[in-house]
Design goal:
The complex is a heterodimer of chains A (112) and B (113).
Chain A lengths: L3 E3 L3 E4 L5 E7 L5 E8 L3 E8 L6 E2 L6 E7 L2 E6 L8 E8 L7 E2 L3 E5 L1
Parallel strand pairs in A: 2-11
Antiparallel strand pairs in A: 1-3, 3-8, 4-5, 4-9, 5-6, 7-8, 9-10, 9-11
Chain B lengths: L3 E3 L4 E4 L4 E7 L6 E7 L6 E6 L3 E5 L2 E6 L4 E6 L8 E8 L9 E2 L3 E6 L1
Parallel strand pairs in B: 2-11
Antiparallel strand pairs in B: 1-3, 3-8, 4-5, 4-9, 6-7, 7-8, 9-10, 9-11
Classes of the chains: A mainly beta (112), B mainly beta (113).
Chain lengths: 112, 113
């Protein structure tokens, strides 16, 4: 079974802190994605990566950056956390660019 | 107009009911249609997918696509309390630069025992 693991289930951070959300997949997938999920807004794509050291902006990249130094690991970085970044963050990976997406269990981030 | 619109819900039905979940879309290039199920405090998991118009059945679940109307549906027969979850439709053109999945907002279904 494909496994996508996110480093934390719950995280509480202070406004202005730099926050790292880590995601690791174990099936050698080329493609990895970061989404945030908010009530009434659904899943929104923040960033994605089709290859190591490659990244593309999604629909809402402002306030975020990403890092993909190794194929299996895709990190989301909140440079200076703000309260409007309180959300559920979901990482996903796919074998092909457009394919079944395997999601992690999510990280519920609260910024206070 | 959003690319993918999904009935907002929430939806509450008694056990054994037939459930119909629907999405409409505006991008005629969409060719690959998926339904994901997300249980509370979990990530979404793929439930069903289809590449073309018509029906696809898997146990109590049927996915239906009508490309001419840009309308997809998921039917759940003999619904069970274990079907209580959020259901998200997703779709993509399959080809083209940076093709990626576009999700509906999701609808939360509750099946009452």
């Amino acid at each position: 079974d494909v496994k996508v693991t996110q480093s934390s289930r719950y995280l509480v951070k202070r406004t202005g802190e730099k926050v790292f959300l880590e995601c690791v997949q174990d099936m050698d997938h080329e493609n990895m994605f970061w989404y945030r999920q908010d009530p009434g807004l659904g899943l929104r794509l923040i960033y994605f990566s089709y290859d190591v050291k490659m990244k593309e902006k999604g629909d809402i990249p402002e306030g975020y950056s990403v890092s993909r130094e190794k194929k299996e690991r895709f990190s989301l970085i909140l440079e200076s956390a703000s309260t409007n970044q309180t959300s559920m963050y979901l990482c996903a990976s796919t074998l092909l660019p457009v394919d079944e997406a395997f999601f992690g269990q999510g990280t519920r981030l609260t910024v206070v | 107009q959003k690319e993918v619109e999904q009935d907002p819900g929430p939806l509450s039905v008694p056990e054994g009911a037939i459930v119909s979940l629907n999405c409409t879309y505006s991008n005629s290039a969409f060719q690959y249609f998926m339904w994901y199920r997300q249980y509370s405090r979990k990530g979404p998991e793929l439930l069903m997918y289809t590449y073309s118009s018509g029906n696809k059945e898997d146990g109590r679940f049927t996915a239906q696509v009508d490309k001419s109307s840009k309308y997809i549906s998921l039917f759940i027969r003999d619904s069970q309390p274990s079907d209580s979850a959020t259901y998200l439709c997703a779709m993509t053109p399959l080809t083209g630069a940076n093709s990626k999945l576009t999700f509906g907002k999701g609808i939360t279904l509750s099946v009452r025992p």
